[in-house]
Amino acid sequence: MTRHFLRDDDLTPDEQRAVLDLSDEMKADRFGHRSLAGPKGIAVIFEKNSTRTRVSFEVGIAELGGHPVVVDGRMMQLGREETIEDTSRVLSRYVHAVVWRTFAQQRMNAMASASSVPVVNALTDEFHPCQVLADLQTIRERLGRLAGVTLTYLGDGKNNMAHSLLLGGATAGMHVRVAAPDGFVPDQEILASAKQRASDTGGSVAILADPDAAVEGANVLVTDTWTSMGQENDGMDRVTPFRKLQINADLVSRAESDAIVLHCLPAHRGWEVTDDVLDGQASAVWDEAENRLHAQKALLTWLLEQERQ
Ligand code: CP
Ligand code: NVA
Asked: Where does L-ornithine bind (predicted)?
């Protein structure tokens, strides 16, 4: 059966753990896993900008012995008049998986609906699940566990990172708190899914407005840009309501003494996070960026193994 990774809860808790374990193995022996040798072609398509995702997928697929076909989606017929479903049917005849960064999640779902090979979400407006696999790997490396860890995300609660941390964190049995201004709280359906998942894993999810209360007792602080790609001209004030949510030294001092700070990057230094925090002792952002490579290699390997079962 073809498995896709369109949102974080597409993996069960056991499956998520298996992917993270494989990611640790791949990190420990970076060139020792040739799971795509054949070689298998994998399409990696971008309709938005990218540094980490683009480079880590291309390098990772090559390290697995596969052949990455990296395409600017705006140069495809998809950008003209071909439907997503027709594109998907054609790609399925060439490649063993499709990795796609696009806008609405509905587009991702449409790609998966017509695909006979795994489709991987490399970021949509609603979710960024590959990033959260890397985040979970980083947290487990630093803190030694995921279940029971309290993670506080501060910023735009409606964006892809907030949603993916809710679903991915709940799947891992974490206590996920989102501190967001009025009007920027998470989508209700996604919140309900995260609550449901948390009830199965012993985790929890909570939405808070006060940053001090949100970080008290937290083991992990996470933030992201206040203006995601595609929101630049949406007419919202994306600064004033967010200022009190900035991760700075004072806020970090209110969390657990060994708390770590994550950011998917790119960071807007001096806005959602200060230089001293990003470059300081608590920051795990460079390991987090590196882990994109390992986590995605593990995910692709795992998805293609499911094809054979
Ligand atoms: N974090 C992340 O996805 O970075 P890029 O946009 O550079 O790929
Ligand atoms: N929320 C950000 C994440 C970038 C990796 C965006 O969508 O632009």
From this structure: 160, 224, 228-229
Asked if residue 90 and residue 59 are part of one domain, the reply reads yes
| Nearest ligand 1 atom, CA 48 | 6
* Residues 217, 79 within the same domain: no
ipTM above threshold 0.90: yes
pLDDT in tens, 204-250: 999 999 999 999 999 999 999 999 999 999 999 999 999 999 999 99
Tokens of 195: 């609550």
Total number of domains in the chain: 2
For residue 161 and ligand 2, the question of a CB distance below 6 A is answered with yes
Angle subtended by helix axes 285-308 and 129-143, to nearest 10: 120
E strand or H helix that includes residue 167: helix 160-171
Q: Which domain CATH number covers 86? A: 3.40.50.1370
Residue 265 CA: which ligand 1 atom is closest?
A: 1
Residues 6+ apart with CB under 8 A from 144: none
Answer yes or no: is 2 within a domain.
no
Give the pTM.
0.98
